[in-house]
Specification:
Four copies of one chain form a homotetramer. By secondary structure, the first copy, chain A, is an alpha/beta fold. Chain A is about 40% helix and about 20% strand.
Chain lengths: ~400, ~400, ~400, ~400
C-alpha cells in the first residue's frame, strides 16, 4: 500500500475530514496533493476551501474549484430523471448521481496535472467509496486509488481531532463532539444518516431537516405551478425558460417552501448492510412526478411499460456506482430513444408536503378524446373489435381451463 | 349471437344500466336471468337490488347477494399489496383487483344454478370487459359470455332511458341527463372517469371526489398510527387486531379524514387507448406505503430487488385482467415466498393529503445497528473488505477501460 | 366491410392462393389491384408472377417486383441477430422477420400509386396476419386492410379451386389435392406446418425438408470456416468480404451441405394456440452461434447479461409482429449500443447437423490471458481481493442466516 | 488470519492439492482437520481418499465419505433443469450446481463434529471460492472460512510440490510438471480450463475431452430414445423407470457414445475476468433439450415466456454462487409452480454430436389439433375474432402513427 505516489488529486470539501486527509496524504505518501472542490449546488461557499488548501501547502495552480452545477443537472440528473429511477421504490438517488461527475472531473484533473493517484473521503462502510472508485477505474483503469478511511488508524473521532490539532488544522467547536448525524448535500438533495437516526423505529428529529420546512409550517394555501418539458427534459417553470440548474434551483425553492420531498428510508447498501437515512429532495420530487405526468400523455404504452420494467435495474446500477458501465449506457440509450416526443406542459399543485399533477397537455399527445369518449365516437373505435380481442387473449386460458378443470 | 341461451348469471348492481341489461337479456335471449350482487364494500345498500330484481321477474332463489368483503381483502387485495403493485408507477389497481373475484363468484353461481351463460355491464371500450371475460373463460372455458354493450343498439343515453321507460324500469332524476362522470367503487377505491374529466389538462373538479376530504379541509394536526404486519399482511391498527376487511375499512376512515390517496392519472388501457381517470384509494395508499416500510426492515436486498423488478409485470397482468393465469400465479408464488418474515410494526404520520413512514420495528429485522454504525463496530464489519469488493467489481470496467481508452 | 375501395396493394406471390385473392379482390371490391412481389431470397423465379398479374388484368405499371434481399439481411436479419433473439429458446424467427419488410414496402407502394387499401394472403389462425397488419397500421394508421381469408366464403380447398377454375386461374396438378403441409420461405429460413406435421408426436417426414440435407447424408468430414464480424455484423467468410445477403447465402450453402439448422418445434402462437412447425435455418443457425462466439470475447459481462435478459422480450415482440413499435426500437437502441466493438473473427466447425465454435479472436478482445492465467500473473490480479469481495457479497446472507437459523 | 482454529472441515478430494492443504492446515493452524469427500458421480474411487486422510493423521471418525449422487441430481440438478437455465446462453452450469451441495454437507459435518471452521481448495481467481463461501456463510453465518490458496505462499507449482515432498505427500509422476489443463468433474459434467486452453483462438485439443467420444468417431447410425417426465422431472428412459441419478448416468452413457454435449466457451466470471473453458455435459445436454420439448406441449404461453425471461437471471445467480439466497428461492418457487403438469414423453434422436427432439406427447397437452388445423375446425376457432384482436393491438400503434407521421 505504500508504494510510492507522486501526486494525488483529492476530492476536497474543505471540511475537517478532507482537511485531515489532505495532511495525512502529504505525510503518509510524501506526495503532492492536488485539491478538487466541486460546486454541485450544495449551498456552501467554496472560497474558504481555497484558503485552507493554500494553508496546507497546496500550490495555487493545484487548487481546482469548479462550478459543475449546470453539467450536473443537464448530464446526470436529467438523464436519470428520464428513467423515472427510484431506488427501492422511493429514493431519488440524490447522492448516487453526484459521485460519477466528481470522479470524472477528478480523473480529468489527474490527467491535466499528471497525477498518478486520486483520493476521496468516503468511509469503508458506505456506497460512496464504491461509486467513486468504480468511476475512477472505469475512466482511468490504471490509476492508483487511495481511500484513507480504509487505510489509516484514525478510526475514532477523538484520534481524528487529535491528528487535526497536531497538524494545525482548525477544528470548529461543533465538530469536537460526535456529530448527531452526518450529511451529504448537492443541488438535488441532502441526505442524513447515523447516530440519532440509527434506530429505525425512532422518528427523525425535526432539526435534522435543512432543505424543507416542516409541512405543518408550510403555507396554508396551495400553490399551482407549471413545468414545460422538451424531449424529456424540463425547460421552463410557469412559462419562464430556464437552464437546467436554474430550473432545479427554482423547484428546490418551491419544494422547500411547501415542505416537499422528505423521505425516511431504510435501504439496502451495495456493501451488504441495511442503513437508515433521511433524504430531502424538494425540487427533484416535484420534477419526478411532473416527468411522469408528461409521459402519461406522450409515451406509448409499449414504451412506458418497458421503461417501468427497466427502471428498477437502472436505479440499482446508479445506486451501486455503475454509471460508467456499458449496461447503464445501454439502458440510457433505450430510455433516451423514448423521449423524443416527451414535450408539453404539466400543471402541479404543491401543498403542505404533497405534490399532485392536476393537468397535462402536449402538442404530441397520444390521448384521443375522440377515441376514449363515452359519447358517440363516430366510428373512431368499433366496440365489436373488443370481442375478438378478448376471445384470442382468452384462447390459451380456455385451453388451460379445459385441461385443468375437466 | 342469438343461439339459444337458457339461463344467464348477470353481475347486477341494481342500478339503471344493469337493470336495463336484465330486461334486455330476458327479452333478447328469452332466457332466465339470475342476478348476482356482490358487497365489495362499495358503500351502497344492496337490499334494493333484491327488490328490483324481484320486480323484474327474477325468481327469489335466483337472486344472489353476497358479502364478499373479507374474501376480497384477504384473497385479492392483500396478495396484490404483498407485490407492491403499482400500474404505471402510480395506480393501486383498485378496479382491476375486484373483477376477478366477481367473475369467480359468477361462475360458481352459474355452476350452482346450471346456467349456460354469464353477463356483465362493462362497456366495449374499457378494461373491465376484458377482466370479467378473461376470468370467466379461465374458470369455465366453455361458458357463453354476453356483453350487452357490445351487442345492443342502445348506444346513446337517450335510447337507454327510452328502453328503461318502455319497460317500467325506474329512472331516477339524476340519471336522466348525461352523468358528468362515471364511477366504480369498492372497499379499496373509487374511480371516476369520463365527461368532465375527459380533457387531461382540466383540473378534476372537487365534486368528483367522494371518498376523501380535500386535503385543505383535513385536520390541521397530523395523526400518528401504527400498523402491525404478520407474514406480509396487515393484522392490527394501533395495536388492535382486526380482520382484513375491518383493517382496510379503518384505514379508509383515516385516509378519508386526512385527504389521502387522491390520484389524477392518464393511463394506458389494455384495449389500446389512453384514458384519464381520477382515483381515490385512501386506506390502500396508507397500506401500500406501510407495507414497503416493514419490508425495508425485514426483506433481504436480493428478495427486495427481485420483487421491484417483477412488480411492474405483476401490475400489468392484473390491470389487463390476467389474475387467473399461470404467469400471475407464478409471480405470486415468488412474492409470497418472500413474505414469511415480513412481520413487525410500522408507524405512519397522516397529514393533509400525505402519509409518511416515521418508524418501523420487527422481531425479524435484518437491520444491524452494530454493523452499520459510524462508531466503532468492534469487528462486525472489516472496512478492508471493501477494497477487495471494489477491486473485483471494478475489474471488468478496468479491462474495458484499457481497451477503449488506450 | 364492403365500403368502397379504389385501389389495393396486394402482397402477391403468384401462387394459387394469392392469384385467387387477386381475382376475388377485383370482383368483391370492384377495385384496381396493384401487385407487389418481393424477392426475399425465397428461391423462386418471380417473373412468372408478372405474367400472371398481367393476365389477371393488372396494369403493367401496377406490377411491382422488387429485389429486397440486401435490405432484408442488412436492416432486418442482422439487427435481429445482434440481439441473439430466439423465440421460446429455440426458434430463429425466420418468418417473423420478413413480414415487417413486406408490410413496409407495401405501404410505400400504396403511397406511390395512391392506393387506399392493402391486402395479404395470410390466414385467420396464424401469426402472419398480425405481423402484416400491425406493420400496415403502424406505418399508415388510416390504411384500409383487407384480409380475404377472414372475409370470404372460400373456406375449403375445394371451393378455392372451384373459384380458381371459374376464373381461369391455372391450377397446377399438385395443388388440386390437399397439400401435405404448407411452407413459407425466405433467405433466412423455410418453415413448414400443417397436415402431416399436425401430430406433435409424429416425426417430421424427411420429404418435408427442402433446405438442408439429412445430417446422415452430410459429408463425413467436418468443414472449418471463419466468419469476420464488424460492429456486430458479419462481413466476411473465410476472409472473403461479402455483402450481407451474399454472406447469408454463402452460409446457407454451407448449412445445407452439412445438414445444419433443422428444428422441430411446438410453439405458442400470438393468437393463443399452440402449433407444431418444422424450420430449416441453415445459414442463420451458423451465424447465430458465430455471433455469440465473437460477443464472448468482445462484450463486457454487464452488457452481455443485460442482452441475455432482454433477448426473450425482443424475440417475443418480433414473433408477435411488433417490429414497428417504440418498445422494439428502444430495445434495438440498447442492443446496437453494445455492438460497437463486436469485431473479430470466429472459427466454426460444421459437421453432420451440428455447428461448433472452435476459436475466436478480436482486436477488441476483453479476454486477458495475463489476468486469467493459472501461472504467476505478476500482480495483474491480487487474489486477496477475492476475500473482501466474497465477504461483502456474503454480508447480507450472513445477516439473514443469523436471523433465520438462530 | 491466524486467530486460533480448533477443528476445520476440509472439502477433500484426496488429490495432490487438497492433500497439501490438509497438511498445511494442520501445520499452520495447529488444528484438527476433518475431511469430507463427496461422491457426486465424478467417476473416481473414493476409498483411496480415506487411506490418504488416515495417513495424514486424520482420525477415522473424522473422515467423511458420502455418496451424494441421488441428492445431487434430485435436489440440485433437476430443480435447475426445470428452469432451463443456461449461463450466457450456452453453459449448463455443471460446476456451479455442485458447489452448494458440497458446502451444505460440509456445514452439516461441521455442526456434527463441532468444528469452528471450513476450508476448500478453490483458487483465488475463480468462481468456486465464491460459490463455496457464499454457501458456508448463508448456512452458518459465523463459521470461520479458510481459503488456503488466498493465504499461503505456495504460489507456484514448484513450491507446492516441494511442500508435498517435505511432508511425505505422494506426488504422482504426471503431477510433477505443470498440468496442461485443470479439470472439475461430477455426474453432470466435466470442465477443463487453463494452459493449453488459454488462447481462445486455439482449438481445444482432442485429448482434453474425457467424457464424450469425438462426434466423428460416434456411431454412423442415429439412436432414438424416449424420456418420460413427471411434474417437470425425468423419471424414465425408453419406458424404464429410474431414479434421478440412474437416469442421468444413463443419459451420460448415451451422450458419451454419440459425442453429445461438448462446449468451447469464453465466459465471464463473477470475479470480473473472462476465462475460456471446455465443458462436456453429455446427459445434461440431452436432458435440457428434452425438458424444453415436454414443456412445449404442456406449458401455457404465459408461463413459458415468463420462465424464459427469468432464466438468465436464475442462471446468473447459480453461476455466481447464490443458490442459498432468497432471490434464487423465489425464482425456484415461481418455476416449480409452473411444472405441475409438465408430464409426458419426449422422443429424441442422437447422432454424431447432435440431439434433436423428434416428437412429444402428454396426457396434459395444451396442443389442440382441433383448434390449429388448416382443415375445417368446426367452429373451434372463429377467424373473425382475429380482426378485432389485431385492431385493438394496433390501436396504440395507429395513434402513434397519426401523431408521428402526420
Amino acid at each position: 500500500m505504500t508504494e510510492s505516489v507522486n501526486r494525488v488529486v483529492l476530492a476536497y470539501s474543505g471540511g475537517l475530514d478532507t482537511s485531515v486527509i489532505l495532511k495525512w496524504l502529504q505525510q503518509t505518501y510524501q506526495c503532492e496533493v492536488v485539491t478538487f472542490t466541486a460546486d454541485l449546488g450544495q449551498g456552501e461557499e467554496l472560497e474558504p476551501a481555497r484558503k485552507k488548501a493554500e494553508m496546507a501547502g497546496v500550490k495555487p495552480e493545484h487548487i481546482f474549484i469548479d462550478d459543475l452545477r449546470e453539467e450536473f443537472v443537464r448530464d446526470y440528473v436529467f438523464p436519470m430523471m428520464r428513467a423515472n429511477a427510484l431506488y427501492e421504490g422511493l429514493y431519488l438517488l440524490g447522492t448516487s448521481i453526484a459521485r460519477p461527475l466528481i470522479a470524472k472531473r477528478q480523473i480529468e484533473i489527474a490527467r491535466q496535472v499528471n497525477a498518478d493517484a486520486v483520493s476521496h473521503g468516503a468511509t469503508g462502510k458506505g456506497n460512496d467509496q464504491v461509486r467513486f472508485e468504480l468511476g475512477y477505474y472505469a475512466l482511468a483503469p490504471d490509476i492508483r486509488v487511495i481511500a484513507p478511511w480504509r487505510e489509516w488508524d484514525l478510526t475514532s473521532r477523538t484520534r481524528l481531532i487529535e491528528f487535526a490539532e497536531q497538524h494545525q488544522i482548525p477544528v470548529s467547536k461543533d465538530k469536537r463532539g460526535e456529530a448527531p448525524f452526518s450529511t451529504d448535500a448537492n443541488m438535488l438533495h441532502t441526505s442524513s444518516e447515523g447516530k440519532v437516526l440509527e434506530d429505525p423505529w425512532d422518528e427523525v428529529p425535526d432539526y435534522v431537516y435543512s432543505r424543507t420546512v416542516n409541512p405543518e409550517d408550510a403555507p396554508n394555501e396551495p400553490e399551482t405551478i407549471t413545468i414545460d418539458f422538451e424531449r424529456g427534459d424540463g425547460v421552463a417553470i410557469n412559462g419562464v425558460g430556464m437552464s437546467p440548474a436554474t430550473l432545479l434551483e427554482t423547484l428546490n425553492d418551491l419544494g422547500r417552501k411547501h415542505g416537499i420531498g422528505r423521505l425516511d428510508l431504510v435501504e439496502n447498501r451495495f456493501v451488504g448492510m441495511k442503513s437508515r437515512g433521511m433524504y430531502e429532495t424538494p425540487g427533484g420530487t416535484i420534477y419526478h412526478l411532473a416527468h411522469r405526468g408528461i409521459e402519461q400523455l406522450t409515451l406509448d404504452r409499449g414504451a412506458a411499460h418497458l421503461k417501468d420494467e427497466l427502471a428498477p435495474r437502472y436505479a440499482e446500477l446508479l445506486y451501486n456506482g455503475f454509471w460508467f458501465s456499458p449496461e447503464r449506457e445501454m439502458l440510457q440509450a433505450a430510455i433516451d430513444h423514448s423521449q423524443e416526443k416527451v414535450t408539453g406542459t404539466v400543471r402541479l399543485k404543491l401543498y403542505k408536503g404533497s405534490v399532485a399533477v392536476t393537468g397535462r397537455k402536449s402538442p404530441f399527445s397520444l390521448y384521443s378524446e375522440k377515441v376514449v369518449t363515452f359519447e358517440d365516437d363516430q366510428g373512431a373505435y368499433d366496440q365489436r373489435d373488443a370481442a375478438g380481442f378478448i376471445k384470442l387473449n382468452a384462447l390459451r386460458l380456455r385451453l388451460l381451463g379445459r385441461r385443468d378443470q375437466g
